[in-house]
Amino acid sequence: MLLKEYRICMPLTVEEYRIGQLYMISKHSHEQSDRGEGVEVVQNEPFDDPAHGQGQFTEKRVYLNSKLPSWARAVVPNIFYVTEKAWNYYPYTITEYTCSFLPKFSIHIETKYEDNKGSNDNIFSESENKDQEREVCFVDIAYDEIPERYYKESEDLRYFKSEKTSRGMLQEGWRDTQEPIMCSYKLVTVKFEVWGLQTRVEQFVHKVVRDVLLLGHRQAFAWVDEWIDMTMDEVREYERTIQEATNEKIGIFPPSISISEMPLSSCTLSGPASAPTTPVCTDAPEFLSVPKDRARKKSAPETLTLPDAATQNQSGVPQGSMLVPVPNQNHSPWPSSDSDQAELGGE
């Protein structure tokens, strides 16, 4: 298990971002979806939790097959997806990602929002992982390098200025002088409990998560003039319309999303108490087994190099299996939820 805490500041207030978060997630998911690929919204319902109060539960399927490297496409089914579940009790959210083909793999994101510049070192003092050692990473939405495939001039916050709010263009050191300012605090736990691959894969996934969070928060502010005047009812209607259009775009029929007026019983959709647990089975799949005399590498490469499909087939790797859900260099692995964007979805 590898735990990191990300802190992402934006020139917004927490109350403003309640609308901006929902708008950004819906629009981004629609932009990243194509026929047979993208984000299918399975469920989007109000949800009442005894501990956190009223919120919104969403379940999505992120279809990734064509976004996988060629070696991975050769060994996974044609219909491959990651399941995203999110519980949004704004300004507190929980997001989980799992994959049925890799039961030992999961991502758990706990998010809190505050009106400050990322100065609260005890914001996760009540988290079950509060005593776990973790690295704190500040993400600068204006000056941190973004992968070239994500770059758009209109979303370059060094030069963007909002017409409706007059905020921007963000200069070096903007977090020290900007008003208003808020921070997304994200506690991200990545698990890939396969001996010999765990360290490299968990570090690689964190690199991908960081890129997704950076992109999502950049877009939230770059699109501020599109959503700043919306009410909650208006953004929920936008969310409903875009979700249905996205489902139709990727070929999910009928394109029907239910956003109920009445909250569901807490016993229907129980929220997670902590990061998802590893299944009872502790034996690694045969195709993921690593010889005992193989030396363990401690650093994560920028890309994971594995045998090509032909070599794998000769070696007896079963068709329909997957080694690790890592994207190629031209695509994001999965969009965010209400907590990341990805926030992995709102975070």
Defining key terms:
Alpha-D-Glucose-1,6-Bisphosphate, Chain A, domain 4, 8 strands, alpha+beta, 7 helices, globular, 23% helix, 8-stranded mixed β-sheet, 347 residues
Can you identify the CATH class?
Alpha Beta
Distance between the ends:
19 Å
State the share of residues found in helices, binned by percent. 10-25%
Describe the global form.
Answer: globular
Number of strands: 8
Mean pLDDT level: 78
- Give me the number of helical elements: 7
Low-confidence stretches: 253-268, 273-290, 309-343
Count of individual domains: 1
The name CATH uses for the topology is Alpha-D-Glucose-1,6-Bisphosphate, Chain A, domain 4
Report the radius of gyration as a whole number of Å.
Answer: 20 Å
Largest sheet: 8 strands, mixed
**What's the helix-strand series?**
EHEEHEEEEHEHHHH
CATH architectural arrangement: 2-Layer Sandwich
The CATH homologous superfamily name equals START domain
**Beta strand %:** 15-25%
What is the strand and helix layout of this fold?
Elements: E1 2-10, H1 14-31, E2 38-49, E3 53-63, H2 70-73, E4 81-89, E5 92-98, E6 105-114, E7 135-139, H3 174-177, E8 182-192, H4 198-222, H5 224-227, H6 232-249, H7 309-314
Parallel strand pairs: 1-7
Antiparallel strand pairs: 1-8, 2-3, 3-4, 4-5, 5-6, 6-8
Helix pairs in contact: 1-4, 1-6
Concise structural overview:
This protein is an alpha+beta fold.
What does this protein structure show overall?
The chain has about 350 residues and is an alpha+beta fold. The protein has a single domain, classed as START domain (Alpha-D-Glucose-1,6-Bisphosphate, Chain A, domain 4), CATH 3.30.530.20. It has seven helices and eight strands, in the order βαββαββββαβαααα. Strands 2-3-4-5-6-8-1-7 form an eight-stranded mixed β-sheet, with helices on one face. Strand 4 and strand 5 form a beta hairpin. Helix 1 crosses helix 4 and helix 1 packs parallel to helix 6. The longest helix is centred in the middle third of the chain and has 25 residues. The radius of gyration is 20 Å and the shape is globular.
